Amino acid sequence: MRIVKSASNENSTSEREDWYQDLVLKTELAEHGPVKGTMVIRPYGYAIWEAIQGELDRRIKLELGAQNAYFPLFIPEHFIKREKEHVEGFSPELAVVTHAGGKKLAEPLIVRPTSETVIGASFHKWINSYRDLPLVINQWANVVRWELRTRMFLRTSEFLWQEGHSAHATQDEASALSRKALEMYARFIEEFLAIPGVSGTKSESERFAGAEVTYAVEGLMRDGKALQLATSHELGVHFAKSFGTEFSDQNGVRQTPYQTSWGASTRLIGAIILAHSDERGLRLPPKVAPVQVVVVPISPDSLVRRAVAKLGEELTARGIRFYVDERDETPGFKFNHWEQKGVPLRVEIGPRDVKAKKAQFVRRDTGEHTAHALTTAGVRAWEMLQQIHDGLYDQALEFRTRHTHRPKAFTEVTRILKDEGGFVELLWCGRASCEAKMKRETTATLRVLPFAKEHSGRCGICGNAARTTALFAKAY
Amino acid sequence: MRIVKSASNENSTSEREDWYQDLVLKTELAEHGPVKGTMVIRPYGYAIWEAIQGELDRRIKLELGAQNAYFPLFIPEHFIKREKEHVEGFSPELAVVTHAGGKKLAEPLIVRPTSETVIGASFHKWINSYRDLPLVINQWANVVRWELRTRMFLRTSEFLWQEGHSAHATQDEASALSRKALEMYARFIEEFLAIPGVSGTKSESERFAGAEVTYAVEGLMRDGKALQLATSHELGVHFAKSFGTEFSDQNGVRQTPYQTSWGASTRLIGAIILAHSDERGLRLPPKVAPVQVVVVPISPDSLVRRAVAKLGEELTARGIRFYVDERDETPGFKFNHWEQKGVPLRVEIGPRDVKAKKAQFVRRDTGEHTAHALTTAGVRAWEMLQQIHDGLYDQALEFRTRHTHRPKAFTEVTRILKDEGGFVELLWCGRASCEAKMKRETTATLRVLPFAKEHSGRCGICGNAARTTALFAKAY
Asked: What is the CATH number of domain B293-387?
């Protein structure tokens, strides 16, 4: 993938979209569904989702103490309307069931765009005493948000996600859990997807509909655009109040619990594609790659076959997901095929290698070729997968560092956002009017107010006293 | 749970329904959702589903060679209409989205009741050559079937399931895969859920809408009613023809592939409840029990606490899911609580036990109390969980054997089905009119034509020459 120089150029934007879509289709990650804006997640893409799910589920249970549950897909229309900001935010995107079982329904049903309201109704039943708190619930589910402009994995009418929901006795506890969820996502995204994220708070205009505070992890993609990777919300008492949920505290006084919600979705697969791909195709982080090592025998020679079988045993013993490509195709064809598919490590073994007791390793992140003793090839492959993870992460971090700008003059800000892309870090006065001006002049949005940044000085947009540091970028 | 003597009695039927619903609610497996016919699967119920999913997913991949994928929730109305029998079978149960994004849709969207059609469209794209076959795909998803009479887990408007779909070059291969899937379900249900199933073929009237052959595993519940536990279908070329799917065989001739589909759902949780529960509450099979062992310290004594901690370490080392109940409640309260929740094994440790270096074990399946040396209590617990699985299975098998009748006279058949419940095994002529007569006179349906049964003799309903053995029962 090119680092596009002129992000304002319409042609190059649509070229980039073609490039992305072609790659998703060619590598068989996904394809368009029959209904506009939907997608079929094909086995190669779904295996990445399974790897994400497995590890994220483990962390959500272990680090946040959550229990999984499942809530209905259909939400009565009057539920969604209970929280005013929530319904205002979501109503343009709702899909509505009006008929079922051959009859018109008395009340239309909303296909869940998110589950705060339906979970709010259960929380109302489950919470009665301080002993019932904290309550931390997670759900893996599909949700529907009717979108006009869709792109596979990044923005689809239906997507898969997990949504966590918690209730707490105090605002401090709720806030702490919400921050802890955000940190969990940021670490997971670094440690599993090899993407460095910027964590922070959203401005009011980008806040979740019905939240008091929205936190997010933002990533910088290799085309210079930002992508929101995960979010976590402090919901205050909004939803608890709408559902009349109260608990008796230790003194028997009725109180309203504070809630949070937090989620990550199949969009993470889009992030992997946009953060790591190069001219040759995908580069999958080893921890989520469906095939971590592809072994290509250079000839059908029986000595080669024996060496490959021996290596296969060692890879199996180390729990490495590998594939031996014995198809009737040329080695060159296979190399290209697996490079495009983003397999982190290729091991080639030919007759000369067997004679020299060697295997050839080719890293997908650097393209580097090295020869390794056959006797220790299994353990070397295992070590190299960790190095490839680090390699991808370092490249992404280096890219982000190089494309995070701190210009002084506003004309320079607009030039960078229009021509170069990347993050622009500015001091900001906190006023929506400045945020709106930036959007109007550059189409860039305020991605996040990064944690623990300086805030003394002048707003980079209006010149008034600054309140905080803000990160701007064009975004998906 | 009583074995109801008079299944035809309306009062006792509704009593049983109350009993079932009360148990589901009290044990916190699930609760009703806000939309009629939907349910919230609570953490205790969802943990059972996670155990089922984990093992079934492993077997589906390993034994059937399936790959997981995900297909859209929304199906265009004209898709569902492509296969005539399919749409006739499902149309009374469909939920329809008519509006989305604030507008009326040009074409209504069906919320998937099953995914043959939307997967058929993808198969059409993916299959072009014999090299693309066999294609074996599995999906974990929610589906919606609008039902009038609903019961949590057994029949809900929305439920969770896996649906497998395959395509093959020949009918024989398709048939073999369909049978293999059925055998996988039957073994899983025995080995994991401790329920003995009867496998066989469905009669034409009970066949899946659009299938040529439907296989099923049927279980007998402790109230004498049958419950369908899993199904597998040979779809012939119906769906491939509707989507124009063809492949080039080894001679370059275009052929139509044969398809199958097979599924199991959250209904399996209903089966666990109905097959194993007794007067005191649930009895969960150890392999799916969220808590396999509950440890109840009889006093807060520090020696007791030390013994409990030691046992906890041993249980952890053996991968046993356990819970130490240190709540401020009486031991009797705790015993009742965990018995109702169906925890397979209770371990009690009091000061006298510690002195005697013993722990008291109480099996949920038999109620048996035994004392075991503290030093080996961990390994004994592990062994006993296997024995409890076998104990539940043997009781269920013994129950089924005792309630499988082979009456000669039709008057005896109707008396048994009306008054005693259970399975009635009969020779059958194969005619739908006899099946209909049975249903009219007893409300019992033909559950399955068991594999490898005799078929020479006279039809137990009309007296004409028999073609097969059929199993009748009242069913959920």
From this structure: 3.40.50.800
How far B465 CA lies from chain A's nearest CA (Å)?
41
Picking from B96, B115, B126, B139 by the largest number of A CB atoms within 10 A of its own CB, the best residue to mutate is B96
Closest chain A residue to B100, measured at CA: A95
| C-alpha distance from B289 to closest chain A C-alpha (Å) | 15
**Per-residue tokens: B330:** 């009486």
Rounded to an integer, the average pLDDT of A309-325 is 97
Query: Does B100 reach chain A within 8 Å, measured CB to CB?
Result: yes
- This model of the complex carries an ipTM of 0.95
Cross-chain residue pair A40–B94, CB shorter than 8 Å: no
- pTM for the model: 0.95
Residue B448 has pLDDT above 60, yes or no: yes
CATH superfamily label, B404-473: C-terminal domain of ProRS (3.30.110.30)
Q: Identify any residues that bridge with B236 across adjacent strands, giving them in sequence order.
A: B259
For residue A35, what is the DSSP state? S
Min Cα–Cα distance to chain A from B136, Å: 10
Across B269-283, average pLDDT: 98
Counted across chains A and B, CB pairs separated by less than 8 A come out at: 160
Candidate CATH numbers 3.40.50.800, 3.40.50.261, 3.30.70.1110, 3.40.50.1820; the one for domain A293-390: 3.40.50.800
CA distance A67 to B280: 26
**Neighboring chain B residues of A39 at a CB cutoff of 8 Å:** 72
- Chain B neighbors of A36, CB-CB under 8 A: none
State how far the Cα of A222 lies from the Cα of A273, in Å rounded to an integer: 9
Nearest to A223 by CA among A431, A19, A435, A74: A19
pLDDT of A7: 40
Domain ranges of chain B: 10-276, 293-387, 404-473
pLDDT at B187 over 90: yes
Residue type present at position B166: S
> Running DSSP on this structure, what letter comes out for residue A42?
-
